[in-house]
Amino acid sequence: MKMNDVSMPGQPGSNPAPAYRRPRKFPKFEVSRDFAAFAQGTSQYADELFEDASARDTALKDEGAEPVSSFEQTADEILTCIGTQGELREILYKILLFCRTSHRFCDVENYISGLDEVVYGHILQTPYSCIAILVHAGGLAKIALNALEEDVLSADLAGLTDDEIDDLIEDWRLETTEAGLYVTELLNPVRRLAAQLAVKPHRKSTYLRILEFCAEEPRSLDDIKQLFLQDNSLVLDYVTAHQKLSPDYYVDRLEKAGGLIWKGAWATTPEGLDFLGREIGA
């Protein structure tokens, strides 16, 4: 193990919600166009592609915007990382949740291997790669351990050769950073579902019916299409004069919001059930 492989631990624990002083924009992962409003649960999702980050930051400097805090910058990077990872998005989110409690590296790899997204999906990346993505983005702290299962600190490495470092480090543990913890709050599926349904309020009952339908038992896409044929109250809007929404649009939106998961068929997630219960009981 080389010196530059050793990431010293942060201090997760308290999870402050920083005061954001300007709008923050992220890639489309059902994430708000306004970071501060999203943190308060009041904003709606953006559908457009976002401008180049460097051009945006240059413009903000010209406007005299206050500099971004390191916490905010790290949160941006984690959200951007998750939002641009396609099929890995829910996996990365769940890793952050799992590592709210510290776990050995191999235990996190085993956890990832057992996720439904991995078991039923076609994920090319290894669990190691998924972990590395989050470590690089600042969402996970990778902490070296010695033979006594104690954290290896920077002072412990002073003056050691690479071979001596290899002898000292016996294992690694992973823990979600403070910025990673904050991101898990922002990307909570219940919040994502609420915001998704708020975008087009007249589609809300359709989303809820699909969640309810897939909660009864896992459903194929053909089952969901048949539901639309049988229930005229379900909404299939025309998004243009000649383009009508199809049932798989709703499935896609609910999956990205964390309400549905593919397990050989479409099933409502525990978070989707929680959200459904809140809405029905409201």
How does this model look, in words?
- This protein is 49% helix and 7% strand.
- The protein is mainly alpha-helical and 282 residues long.
- It has a 3-stranded antiparallel sheet with strand order 1-3-2.
- A hairpin with a 3-residue loop joins strand 4 and strand 5.
- Helix 3 crosses helix 10.
- The chain is elongated and about 75 Å long.
- The chain starts with 34 loop residues before the first helix and ends with a helix.
Helix content: 40-55%
Q: Which regions contain 5 or more consecutive residues with pLDDT less than 50?
A: 1-28, 30-62
Could you report the average pLDDT, rounded to the nearest whole number?
Answer: 80
Q: How would a textbook summarize the main sheet?
A: 3 strands, antiparallel
Q: What is the strand arrangement across the widest sheet?
A: 1-3-2
Strand content: 5-15%
Order of helices and strands: HHHHEHHHEHHEHHHHHEEH
**What is the tally of helical segments?**
15
Category from helices, strands and their pairing: mainly alpha
N/C terminus separation: 55 Å
Strand tally, please?
5
Calculate Rg over CA atoms. Answer: 21 Å
Q: Report the principal-axis shape.
A: elongated
